[in-house]
Amino acid sequence: MRELFKSYIAFLFLLTATVCCPVDMQAQRPDNSIDTAFFLAVDAANYDSLLHNFYMQQYAQSANNHRNRKASQAYAEFDNIPDSVFIHRLQQLHMVVPMTYNSDVRAYIKLYVRVMSHRLDAMLSLSEYYFPLFEETLDRYKVPEELKYLTIVESALNPQATSRAGAAGLWQFIYSTGKYYNLEINSLVDERRDPYKSTVAAARLLRSLYDIYHDWHLVMAAYNCGPGNVNKAIARSGKHSFWEIYPYLPRETRSYVPAFIGATYVMNYYQEHGMTAGRYELPLRTDTIHLHKDVHFAVVHKFTGIPMVQLRQLNPQFRADIVPASSRDYAICLPSNRSSLFLKYEDTIYKVSKDTIAKRSAYVPAATSSAGTIVYHKVKKGETWNSIAAKYGVSVNSLRRWNGKSRKSTLKVGTRLKVYLHNKEDKSSASASDNKRSANESTNVATNTNKTTTTKPTTTKTTTKTTQKTTKQQTNKASYYKVKKGDTLGKIAAKNNTTVAQIKKLNNMKSDVIREGQQLRVK
Question: Tens digit of pLDDT for each residue in 45-59?
Answer without folding.
Answer: 455 455 444 445 444
